[in-house]
Amino acid sequence: MKSKFRSGRSHLALLSFRPSLHSKVVSHSRFRSWIRRSVKFEKLEDVSPAFDLVINCAGIGARELVQDIDLEPHRGQVAIVPKIDNLSCAIVCDDPPLMYAIPRASDCVFGGTNELSDNLDADPTTTARIIDECTRVLKIQNPLVLAERIGLRPFRKSGVCLERDCLPDGRTVIHNYGHGGSGFTLSWGCAQKVFELAEELPGQRR
Ligand SMILES: Cc1cc2nc3c(=O)[nH]c(=O)nc-3n(C[C@H](O)[C@H](O)[C@H](O)COP(=O)(O)OP(=O)(O)OC[C@H]3O[C@@H](n4cnc5c(N)ncnc54)[C@H](O)[C@@H]3O)c2cc1C
Question: Domain-by-domain residue ranges, the chain?
Fold first, then answer.
């Protein structure tokens, strides 16, 4: 059944655009000399012994990496469409069917879904359902679908895992994963907490 909005609220919030946020962070002078490599680890002890501290931010990958059965993939599918005229703020409906339209600098994100699945293939029926609901709410014609995107929110039933632990080889690991659908929002605070846990280690100087 099509839902009708009977009530709602508005608030001012910061919207970040992931690609530009990511490139801003990695191009920061502090990180320019860092070595970035793509390696898939079977276990955390496989991290080179040259590093005495391991920070585990593996997202949903922590399910296998540290055998955390509390982690669930909450699949999200969105459609990227061209900029929508006169849409100056995000519109979100959290009640089923989940619906959101988020304007960005050069396009707009229509969503969405939240289901227990790790299927990374786009489902055309879902895209059609998303477009149908967003256009109904925005009272616009069907826009061109520029792209379909799928991601897995690393939902952890017992909450975010942010703690210090010890690997079997004696090295310290700081876990920081399981942020569900709030990973960007929580990232600054969690990174600060990881930093504090690392600073408390013997031999660390301010
Ligand atoms: C549809 C959708 C909507 C979202 N909406 C919001 C929102 O509104 N607000 C918000 O704040 N956040 C949102 N998020 C972000 C979400 O909250 C997640 O928390 C975030 O994407 C996960 O970030 P992460 O850095 O923990 O994990 P990821 O971004 O998944 O990064 C984990 C990294 O670890 C690597 N890795 C995993 N396993 C291994 C291994 N064995 N060896 C080596 N490397 C490994 C992966 O390759 C990856 O690079 C959304 C995400 C999705 C998918």
Answer: 42-70+157-206, 72-155
**173, 198 Cβ separation under 8 angstroms:** no
Instruction: Let me know if domain 42-70+157-206 sits in CATH 1.25.10.10.
Output: no
Residue 2 banded pLDDT, cuts 50, 70, 90: low
* pLDDT of 81 above 60: yes
Q: Give me the CATH code for the 72-155 domain, please.
A: 3.30.9.10
Ligand 1 atom nearest the C-alpha of 184 is 11
Ligand 1 center from residue 3 Cα (angstroms): 30
Q: Which of 57, 175, 190 has the most ligand 1 atoms within 8 A of CB, as the residue to mutate?
A: 57
- Assembly ipTM: 0.96
- For 83-122, b/e burial (b = at least 16 CB within 10 A) is ebeeeeeebebeeeebbbbbbbeebbbbbbbbeebeeeee
